[in-house]
Design goal:
heterodimer; A: mainly beta; Porin; 16-stranded antiparallel β-barrel; two-stranded antiparallel ribbon; 21 strands; globular; B: 270 residues; alpha/beta; D-Maltodextrin-Binding Protein, domain 2; 2 domains; two-stranded parallel sheet; 23% strand
């Protein structure tokens, strides 16, 4: 028994020795070599960062007068024809965003590859409707290099965030509202574009580090192929500074770009309606018809796409928690079509049908976003107001009013469908949205969001748009980030 | 019964090897944390690993979850607080000691005292010659810590009133490097923790009000007459506080504070 007890005690001591020192005692040089090898491996591994996030959500929308899933619902597909629902609301499950990103940095240079991974789309079939979502697509593919002499100038090329404003570059995984503001979604679909950009910022510690200038040339076709030689310029100048308890920033942006015109007619607002721009309709001296035909100077030409923006941010850390206020205001000129004021997103010059007249609109819009963390708890509340007026040359209340007698008379003389005067439509209707949300940060990886968008549209004289549409949206989202 | 007791003895000899708290961060706090961890280990048998790397490195590791306690010679920055909030982490900040920052010059330099304004003008590049502050006609060579250092941040916030260092300032990776450079360069000036002062450099008497000039020492730091004194911190997650309280309470105890005094930092007031 005593021998057995001694054996058990000895075993315990040996085990504790093993627990403290698993290896035989080597020489110091061997240990140093092994540590050095491990360090080298860790250094190499630290250059590659893998990150990503998945946003799974359920959205519920009021039924609007068109009896179809509102475009404000970002997941799910529309049914063909009116959808019968239970409970008075539409609802859809979906993966709003699934991102996988690899970043490799060394020698002041960085390569980024990011994929967007969503549920498999519904294809077009008899009686079915193709939806806009895709399975896997490229979100970001870029390379950037910092100058090794002054450490101030960075050159970036590929597909990456457009350097305009603040909300575009704000990560979707951090954004407290489910979506960016309506104007950002309309003007900058997918946030990213294909191009090349220079960034100028003094190194940390330099007094000029508070300023940053980004400027570049882009294809202007979102994350799709470049199709035109004329490139769009996008630039942003920002100022950012802070203390241990607060941070603030201001910025100014500019977009000077071009949209391809596919038809001979371009419309601009005049006297409450879209007037065909006749300045480009030049009589063709070689024409043999009577009256002589016009030269088509618009088709294959470019319409100016010009935006100006201002952004501001303020954050305060106090016993009440982290308080954040962000705002942007954007205005300018947007070339669109009769049915849409959105920027090109996947324009294909080989398939576009001629006849999509260009409509030039002056617009404005913006947002104010307030976020309050509740003391040092995991809970936060957020309120956001955003507005978008796609056509500042006409009030919503005037949309749908009849053309003047002169305008009608001029139209009567024109046999083709592109009349001298075209009335404003629902495309020109203004929108405003108040969103209220609650966020629960479960831990470093998981975030739950419940958010309600109260969408209001301008009341027009158009039959279906005389009152505010019932198109509010509830979003319940769970996000995992790593 | 005997078998049970012997089995328990086995477990007790193995268990300490699986308990090892980690403290990571400030190189300023490192020598203090090492002594505290050693004493705590001897007293309780619990193992504590202490790793340097800088205040920023420690706080980042706390956010990532790769360290239990972050040690820092500066308070958390705004962006770090925001990241904690985004991660759903509530962080506890505990002051464990104080450190006086001494402004040092070469022993051959005749200057004895400087005001805060003069220090600001020197480190921001407005004043470039010692004759402008009562010294000899000699070019001033200022030295600073690197931007990742908590000491750098504290000096910028407290002495320079958040103005930026001059762009041509010489950045040194560690306190020892500043001591060496200042001792070897006649016109040099730099700043180091009190514990690093030695005879190869001369400490300047500093005044913030332009009237009372005080020499840095443990006594003047403790009686709060010396104006450049900074707190040293432990940061940890509130939700796991009970795991760390034994170590934290030890550091804050009379025994722990005696170690603070011995290492050369300033203990907390009784």
């Amino acid at each position: 028994m005593k021998l057995k007890s001694l054996a058990i005690i000895a075993l315990g001591l040996i085990c504790s020795t093993v627990a403290f020192s698993q290896e035989k005692v080597d020489s110091l040089d061997v240990h140093e070599q092994r540590i050095s090898n491990l360090e080298d491996g860790v250094i190499q591994l630290k250059k590659l960062k893998i990150s990503g996030y998945v946003q799974a959500q359920m959205q519920s929308s009021q039924i609007d007068s068109s009896f179809s899933k509102t475009n404000d619902m970002k997941v799910g597909s529309a049914m063909f024809g009116p959808e019968k629902v239970i409970g008075g609301n539409y609802n859809r499950f979906g993966i709003r965003r699934g991102r996988l990103k690899a970043t490799y940095s060394d020698f002041g240079c960085t390569g980024v590859l990011e994929l967007n991974i969503l549920e498999t789309p519904i294809g077009t079939s008899a009686g079915g409707t193709a939806n806009g979502t895709t399975g896997v697509s490229v979100k970001t593919a870029s390379v950037s290099a910092l100058d090794p002499w002054l450490n101030m100038l960075t050159l970036t090329g590929g597909v990456f965030d457009r350097p305009f404003g603040y909300e575009i570059g704000y990560s979707s995984s951090r954004l407290e509202s489910p979506e960016r503001s309506r104007i950002i979604q309309t003007l900058f679909p997918d946030e990213n574009d294909l191009g090349v950009m220079f960034s100028l910022q003094a190194p940390k510690g330099n007094p000029w580090n508070v300023l940053k200038l980004d400027g570049g040339l882009f294809a202007g076709n979102s994350i799709r192929q470049d199709y035109k030689s004329q490139k769009d310029f996008i630039g942003h100048l920002s100022y950012s500074e802070g203390t241990s308890t607060m941070k603030w920033g201001l910025g100014a942006s500019m977009y000077a770009g071009f949209n391809y015109q596919t038809s001979r007619y371009v419309y601009k607002m005049n006297n409450g309606a879209f007037a065909r721009d006749s300045s480009a309709l030049v009589v063709d001296p070689a024409s043999t018809t009577t009256p002589k035909a016009n030269l088509n100077l618009n088709t294959n030409n470019f319409a100016n796409r010009t935006y100006y923006g201002f952004d501001g941010q303020f954050s305060l850390a106090s016993v009440a928690g982290l308080t954040q206020i962000r705002a942007e205001y954007i205005f300018g000129t947007q070339p669109g079509t009769a049915g849409s004021s959105a920027s090109p997103n996947g324009y294909e010059p080989t398939t576009i049908t001629a006849g999509a007249d260009t409509y030039i609109r002056n617009f404005n819009g913006g947002y104010v976003h307030f976020v309050q963390d509740i003391a040092d708890t995991k809970h936060s509340i957020t309120v956001k107001y955003d507005w978008y007026n796609p056509n500042t040359d006409i009030n919503s209340s005037a949309i749908g009013t009849a053309l003047t007698a002169d305008q009608i008379a001029a139209n009567a003389k024109t046999p083709n469908t592109s009349k001298p005067y075209m009335a404003a439509s629902k495309t020109d209707m203004s929108y405003s949205t108040i969103g209220i949300g609650y966020i629960y940060r479960m831990n470093n990886n998981v975030k739950l969001t419940v958010y309600y968008d109260m969408v209001s549209n301008g009341k027009t004289m158009l039959k279906k748009y005389m009152a505010d549409l019932t198109d509010n949206v509830l979003t319940v989202r769970m996000q995992y980030k790593f | 019964m005997k078998k049970l007791i012997l089995s328990l003895m086995m477990v007790c000899t193995i268990a300490p090897s699986f308990y090892a708290q980690k403290i990571k961060g400030s190189d300023t706090v490192l020598p203090l944390a090492q002594k505290e961890a050693e004493a705590f280990g001897k007293k309780t048998g619990k193992s504590v690993t202490v790793i340097g790397g800088g205040s920023g490195v420690g706080i980042a590791a706390l956010l990532e979850g790769t360290t239990e306690i972050a040690m820092a010679s500066r308070s958390m920055k705004f962006d770090e607080k925001a990241k904690c909030q985004e991660a759903g982490k509530s962080i506890v900040e505990k002051i464990i000691a104080y450190d006086a920052l001494a402004v040092v010059i070469n022993p051959s330099n005749g200057v004895v005292k400087l005001t805060r304004q003069q220090l600001e003008d020197i480190f921001t590049g407005k004043v470039t010659n010692w004759k402008q502050v009562g010294g000899a006609d000699l070019k001033i060579t200022p030295y600073s810590r690197e931007t990742s250092s908590g000491t750098y941040e504290f000096f910028k916030e407290h002495v320079l009133k958040n103005k930026n260092y001059m762009s041509s300032i010489l950045s040194m990776p560690a306190t020892g490097a500043i001591i060496q450079s200042v001792s070897q360069t006649k016109g040099a000036i730099g700043y180091v923790g009190l514990a690093y002062l030695n005879s190869s450099v001369k400490a300047v008497h500093v005044s913030f009000d332009g009237k009372n000039f005080v020499e840095p020492s443990l006594k003047t730091a403790m009686n709060k007459t010396y104006p450049i004194v900074r707190p040293l911190f432990f940061y940890y997650e509130k939700s796991k506080e009970k795991n760390y309280l034994p170590l934290v309470n030890f550091v804050l105890s009379a025994e722990g504070q005696a170690i603070v005094d011995k290492v050369g930092y300033v203990p907390l007031a009784k």
